[in-house]
Each structure stands twice: as structure tokens, then as C-alpha cells.
Amino acid sequence: MSRAGGPVLVDCAGAQMGGALRFLTELDGFLAPRPSAGVRLIGRGRRVAPSWLARRERPGRYRRTVALNNVGYLATRGERWVLLRNALHFLTPAEVRALPGGLPADIARAAPVVRLLARRADVVVVPASSMAERVLTALPDLADRVVVRPHPLSPPPRPGERSRGTILCPVLFASFKPMGRLLRLADTAAAMVAEQTGEPVSIVVTATDTEARVQGLADCRSLRFVGRLTPAALRGHQRRAGALLYPTTAESFGYPLAEARLAGLPVIARDTGHNAEIAGPVLVPYRDESADDLAAAMHATLTLTPQPEPANPFDPVDYFTWLLDAEEPAL
């Protein structure tokens, strides 16, 4: 039985890969033992296209509608919640000008719609303080409706035997990400650390050989390209790696940062407030995008063993109980 006011209607369209798929996996895990939670999930396997946005609107009344995919509901009756989780919808003009390939056309078309429907929301959920700042810079009238809640994440299995000289770089290449320049610096840094320690350093990158050639990385000796991995294959690499390299700069959350934190895996990333907020005590920051700074951070991870935290800062039960106004399973 659902609570007074009807069920909670949740649109999960668009969760095909990356963090969106990771989020949906956590949601499925939460709902599995709670068949009477009063939640109706729609949109699985669909693209967030105009045709779907029109079809998902429902007659009748729901006690809450939740859009997990940046685009809030327009007409369905009920308290409207939306997750804003794509920083590209809220880049500053200077950031757009700095993108190597420019703002992708689909993002440029979607951003005005995302912003317009965010104004209709009763609650706007963002996964980090940096994303809240982006949203409020663009939409200051949402100041009393924005709530920062980090994305949900279950603790990983116990790690296996870690390879101290193996660094995992779980990134998705895209035209707007300057991955070639950053990874060439990382390749140089890895060679510097290997020379200093006498031990080989290998950086495992989740990109294809073709993507590496396009970015001019085919001749890099310390980079090993393993292609785009399934979540299960990626978890295997995470259990074996000695550290994580996360060189991206415009993130709304960054699941790899959170996963490394729960696994006690040192993270080499930019010295930013966002990375410190999500990675917490496992962050090994570099300040400048230089081979010297990257090498110093890599060297530091070789002897770092982060201590476990007393509680999960990304607890999925707490998160989804709040987001979905969910009923607990009967004992």
C-alpha cells in the first residue's frame, strides 16, 4: 500500500553508462527488498528525448515526482523533485570557451530546458557543493530549494592483493575533455617515479587504442589502454590497483572518487574543494598540471594506507529513504 497522496513517480531514463548507471544500480539494490516502498519506476532503457519527456507526464496525482536525469517534470501533479547531476548544463561562458571541442550540441540544446524546468521544481538535489554553486550562479532564485546530498554508494567488496605500481585511470574520453595533454603529463610522471624508485609504474586507462591514437597517446610507454569496461570488469581493476588517477576537472560528483574513498584507495586528483569533499581522506592532491607535481603525488601513494572511516558518507539507505519518502520493509 502506498502512503496518502499516491506513489512516488521516478523517471530513470538516460541511465545507460557511467555515474547515471551506477546510481541506478544503487537504486535497484535499495528497492529490491522493499516491494511495498510506494515507488513507481519508469523510463528504464530509454533516452532522455523530447518524445519521452512528453510521454512520461502522467494523469492523476503522485505524492512526489523525482527526475533522476536533470530534466524536471512539467505537468504531473505532486511535489516535484529533480536531480541536477551534469555540470555541462551549468558551465560558465569562460569554461565553455575553454572546451577543446566546444560544448556538445546536445548539451547546448538541453541546457535551457534543464534550467527552465529546474525553476518549476520544489526541491533541486545536487551531489556536491561545487554543483550547488554552479546551479545558483545560473539560477540564484533557487537558493531556498537546492539541497546538497552526495550520491548513494554501497561499500565495495574487500580488496584483493593490490599492485602498488598500478594506477587506474577510469575516465571516459570525450571531445570536450583535454585528456591527451593530461595523460601525456601522467606518462612522463610515471617514468619519473619509476626512475626514482626502481619499480615500474603502469597507468591503466579505460579507453580504447583508437581513442588513444586520436589523442596522440599511442607512443606513451606507461599507459595501458583496456577499453571501456563493464561495471564488473572495472571493479576488478579497482580491487587490484594501488592508486587511482582522476584528472577530470568539470564534475558534478565523480563516482570513482567516492568508490576509491570507500575502498581506502589513494586518489591522485587536482587540489580542489570538490575533490576534497568527495574523496575525503584518500585524496593525494596535485596543485599544478605538471609532470613534477603529478610525480610527487604518485610517489606519495606508494606508501599511503588510508584508514577506514567509521561510517559510510554515501549510505544508500539513508539517501533513498529521504529522496523517495520510502516506506521501510515490514519485519
Question: How much helix is in the residues?
Answer: 25-40%
Mean pLDDT score: 91
The poorly predicted ranges are: none
Number of structural domains: 2
- Encode the helix/strand succession as letters: EHEHEEHHEHEEHEHEHEHEHEHH
Sheet bearing the most strands, described?
6 strands, parallel
Q: What is the tally of helical segments?
A: 12
Q: What gyration radius follows from the Cα positions, in whole Å?
A: 21 Å
End-to-end Cα distance, whole Å, is 15 Å
Protein name: Glycosyl transferase group 1
GO molecular function, one term: glycosyltransferase activity
Keywords: Transferase
Organism: Frankia torreyi
Question: Can you describe this structure?
Answer:
Keywords: Transferase. This is Glycosyl transferase group 1. It comes from Frankia torreyi. One of its GO terms (molecular function) is glycosyltransferase activity. The chain has twelve helices and twelve strands. The longest helix has 19 residues, at 179-197. It is globular, with a radius of gyration of 21 Å. It has 331 residues and is of the alpha/beta class. The two termini are 15 Å apart.
Summarize the structure.
This protein has 331 residues and is α/β, with parallel strands linked by helices. Helix content is 36%, strand content 17%.
